[in-house]
Amino acid sequence: MKAAVLFSGGKDSVYSAYLAKKLGYELTCLISIFSKNKDSYMFHTPSVKQVKEQAKVMEIPLIIKTTRGEKENELKDLEKIISKAKKKFGIDTIVTGAIESVYQVSRIQKICDKLKLKCFNPLWKKHELEYLNELIKNKFKILIIAVAAYPLDKSWLGREINKEFIQEVKKLNKKYKIHVAGEGGEFETFVLNCPLFKKSLKVIDKKIFGEKNSWRMEIKVN
Fold first, then answer.
1. What is the pLDDT of residues 124-172, one digit of tens each?
2. Domain 140-221 grouped into CATH 3.10.20.340
3. What are the distances in angstroms from CA 199 to CA 53, 92, 144, 196, 203?
4. Is the pTM of this model over 0.90?
5. How far is CA 207 from the centre of its chain?
6. DSSP state, 154?
7. C-alpha angle with apex 205: 35 to 46, nearest 5 degrees?
8. Architecture of the CATH domain 2-120
9. Cβ atoms within 10 Å of 168's Cβ, excluding its own
């Protein structure tokens, strides 16, 4: 089973890669889309270019395609790069980090069907609290690099997902319906270390942008 991972550098795609490898998939390459539209319907955008550093410490080839990020049209760019991965690496499976987004998973499945590839979504409909606790148990070091929902603010940027974080987002879920795993776009993440990495990454520079309850932290790692 030769798999390519749709890879953004956030917790969902990295953990899906980890689960796929545990289940016996050969991770032959990572596929990343660099969208010029920070509000893309399909693709994670904060600090996405730092996936190059993650790929290095994972020692897995990375292929990249840039898209303008126009709704639906960006899917054509995704199809092109998946087709390229199939030809170059002989993959038979695409691994995604989809959890609840029917919009995303249905469109990726359609591309896979067209290219005669299997689509594996190891996190699909996974219980959010169970998921976060698994991340901690499996020693994933994860930073919050963007927030986009009240009452989350600038102070959340740079926080790690740990037991304290889980307790806070559980309270926010009860009061404000914040999805504890950020599946509604409430927050975005970047993985600095996990069992797939040969060494931990460190943040060497950061820039913060935003206002009110919409903030992002663009980081540089090595």
1. 999 999 999 999 999 999 999 999 999 999 999 999 999 999 999 999 9
2. no
3. 11, 29, 20, 9, 13
4. yes
5. 20
6. G
7. 20
8. 3-Layer(aba) Sandwich (3.40)
9. 14
